[in-house]
Amino acid sequence: MTESKKTMLSAVAPSNRLTVGNYIGALRNWVKLQDQYDCWFFSVNLHAITVRQDPTELLEQTYRAVACYIAAGIDPKKATLFIQSQVPQHAELAWVLNCFTYMGELSRMTQYKDKSLKQGQNIPAGLFNYPVLMAADILLYQTALVPVGEDQKQHVEITRDIALRMNNLYGKDLFRIPEAYIPPVGARIMSLQNPLAKMSKSDPDPNGAVYLTDTNDQILKKVKRAVTDSGTEITYEETKPGINNLLTIQAAITGKTIPEIVNSYIGKQYGHLKVDTANLLVETLGPIRDKTDELMKDRSYLLQVLEDGAERARERAGQTLKEVYRRIGLV
User: Fold this and answer.
1) What confidence tens digit (pLDDT) does each residue in 124-140 have?
2) What is the CATH number of domain 216-293?
């Protein structure tokens, strides 16, 4: 690690297959930033168990998530890759931070409100206080930059609040105060079947999300079935969330501006936009899917990458946790 490089950290929960939303909102940005920062990317399997998981599937998706990172362009020689449960300091610091986090703060978290409504009765305590574990994830590595989607910005804000509170109590140099990084385009990709809702790994409608495991035919069919809007003119405006979503996907992948893309469709129909977007996704995601499958078959290589990463993560996280224990008076 070059000392002048600031630390950047991000992760995705392996609670289901990763989507094109994860790719555009997270993985592509990680690849762009890995040369500029001291990067730590991991699979947050402890977060995944806030809802019930099939153990076999969770294990498979945990490894596949990291394989997707590599397939998308993350270089294990440039970035540290690991699995959250391999680094016990995450859970240890989370307990300490729980004691400095207020229930009122946690009850105001938007994702808790949304997920608890879906959960119904018998809401797990982990669903309530998992933002504290996320704060531990970030603060353990003295993180400067946290790439997140717009819906995750609130988690960085509560992390900052917890860090500032502890710094005021135990020394202003205890934790680095992190900043959220939200990419200017593509931070929020919406469901293909409900363009008013974010694309989700756990979407009950299989046609709502394009997964990184989808075949080329599945991608083509899903995008062609995407819900659009009344009218025929391809424009980017508030009343056309379905069209906006397809234009946003194209802009995020190609690097073109949305006005540029809109101008290219003057006189064309919605069908043209769907076909072009579908073909672009096939061209982009196909090689990532195939490379991921190769990595999953070469499990020895994947395990070596993860063990090397976990060793580095335990060393860095251990330094922070040791200092936290010393400052607050724990043996």
Assistant:
1) 889 899 999 999 999 99
2) 1.10.240.10
